[in-house]
Amino acid sequence: MTSQANNAAKVMVVDDSQTIRRTAETILTREGYTVITASDGYEALGKIVDHHPDVIFIDIMMPRLDGYQVCALIKSNPNFADTPAIMLSSKDGVFDRARGRIVGSDEYLTKPFTKDELIGAVRTHLKKP
To answer: Domains in the chain, ordered, with CATH?
Structure first.
């Protein structure tokens, strides 16, 4: 019996929508990833320090701290600056994508995302040089 848990990448999903968190968690867990979820930016920042995820998905529209602020805080911390951050949004505008890049996001996924888009994004960003 082989266990994927030994080398499973840790993926964090930060979204105030329980539906989005559950959907992403189900998809990623089935692919063998360890999933950490957070319902807002403050919860996410604490869990990032505790769990050191390999990839972080961040919803843009959240109460208290929005996704841009969370991403900027992650990228400004030397311990997490190289952690891939993928913005999630229901908006697909040029401005939103540009703002995501400005705060350091590595990719931008539009909701609703497909299973292939989610898995593809994780696989792309786990291939570090």
So the answer is: 10-126 (3.40.50.2300)
